[in-house]
């Protein structure tokens, strides 16, 4: 198996090392793992591509490349410039922090997997929910490291990959904020919503008097209910959410057609 891996935390991020180990396990002795990851952190860039300017790409080691661009740029670079042939699978992550709930919409980790799916390649995004139980672990990615390969293998063996669909499915996996030993079996979950919490803006003045804006975060340990990604993670389960790049609100189509008729 030939696997392309990327992330949004950068080429030197510890989560990428965890993902490389997962990919090596999946690829097997005769397989190949190729890394194309951002040279610098790209958290929050979503599905951004560097359409208006070129992307500098550098070979760091055999099958290991860094790109001054987004995760989606990295996937495009891997597919059309770096890899000798199309990969069998693209893995994006392991992100330092959850990409569940509304975080999905901002995530570069999701953006990398989404671009792979749009290019017709099976893709999975993987993220490690962090919290009080993980902050003192020697490896905060312990849950993902221990259960990542088995989770991806189960998806490859049992999930629908609908290669003929205009917008192919890809999968969003979040590992719970707990130890490997306390991690519970995967649950299929919808995307949750943390209610009124959201990103915001805080203004600050620099010593020179210039005005800067900082994006402010919001609490992550908010239970969005059983059956949702955040909710299942908070209950100790690995969450698996099927996704597509198609943002059409199908539930509103018929009503809107009737209103405009």
UniProtKB/TrEMBL annotation:
Its cofactor is a divalent metal cation. Binds 1 divalent metal cation per subunit. It catalyses: a ribonucleoside 5'-phosphate + H2O = a ribonucleoside + phosphate. Its main location: cytoplasm. One of its GO terms (cellular component) is cytoplasm. It is an enzyme of class 3 (hydrolase). Keywords: Cytoplasm, Hydrolase, Metal-binding, Nucleotide-binding. It is found in: Cytoplasm. A divalent metal cation binds at residues 8-9, 43, 95. Its EC number is 3.1.3.5. Residues 3-194 form the Survival protein SurE-like phosphatase/nucleotidase domain. InterPro entries: SurE (IPR030048), SurE-like_Pase/nucleotidase (IPR002828), SurE-like_sf (IPR036523). One of its GO terms (molecular function) is 5'-nucleotidase activity. Nucleotidase that shows phosphatase activity on nucleoside 5'-monophosphates. Belongs to the SurE nucleotidase family. This is 5'-nucleotidase SurE. It comes from Aquimixticola soesokkakensis. The gene is surE.
